[in-house]
Structure prediction request, 386 residues.
Amino acid sequence: MKRTLVFQDGDSQKFWSIEVNGTGFTVNYGRLGTKGQFQTKSFETEEKCQKEASKLIAEKTRKGYNELADGAEMPELVIVEKDPNAFQFSKEQKAMLKERVEDEQYSKKEAKLLEKLVLKHIIPCFNLKIVDGKPTPLDSSVGGIPYCPIGEELPKDENGNEIPLLIQLNLEGIELPGYPNKGIFQLFMKENPPDLEWEDFEEIMQTGNRARYYEDITAEYRKDIPYSNHSMAGACGNDMPADQRHYKIQLEKGWSMYPLLYAEFFSKEAYIFGNCEIFNEILKILECEQTLADIDPEEYFDYDSDFFDVFSDMFPDVSNIGGYGSTPQGQTSIPYSVAKDKKDAKLIHLSEDIISWGDCGCIYFFYEDITKIKKDQSLWGYGDMS
Prediction:
């Protein structure tokens, strides 16, 4: 009896076959298109031989191998051309994983599978970085002077007071799925009162922001608008005077990965954007037969475990558009009841590298389509004061 199984996933294209003869079997395995290697093993009885062969076949099937039908020809090796724009692990990131294997934090197998997890779920984004220079009305900025065509007014609150600019993004030339590559996106937000309580900030997040999107920015714009010096503008811990809190920012192509850090991240009540799926993948990687449906993740993982801390090193928390939401300390506290409704939404994620709020807080604003934002529309927002 001979059975042949094949695994084809991108650049990984392998075959594995086993032929049982009485009390022994021969395994032939290798890359498609090659003869591969052979291994022979003998047993005391035919029953033991068959039992071991069945076990090996089941292991390969669990790993994603597919069995060829009787008489079917071996598939040809498919040459997969690498996308030059696809994510590639840097030397530094590979070194981080290697170091953890050497420290016996991971087995080689776990490290390899975690690499696959990253490649499957990582998505492109644009990181927001403060750079030198004073922002103009056409620049991306946190604080700064908002672009406002002649004849238009800045957004106002219910009392008729102008709402200061928190962030402006010039999207000219960016290439990001689901985003325009031109125009200016703006988010204005009420100032936080000095004695701010969390309940007050939550209300400001929901009703105190106004969004705008200008597709055409060739129109003449007002030059009488002063700099917006928002109290939240600037990296956490900066000591710039109140009248100088406006910064030019640059959009840089980057990559965003789920912040897989702490056990509480996987709790049923607090996770973001479908992480049940990822948690189940991790259990599979760790060869656990259970799933999130029948396990308490906070009990499964040691609460202080650093099993996932490699992700915070590889993908540090930075402000971005188009990526996943996370917090500076790697947790997420967006409730499941909210996250499930926002699963397919896009977001702008502002973190401690460009805003100051609390110890190292961050905020998110969700939207379906920037180009369809109505003038002075309030976006759904959420904050996490870590």
In short: The longest helix spans residues 46-62. Confidence is low (pLDDT under 50) at residues 260-276, 288-305, 327-340. The longest strand covers residues 12-21.
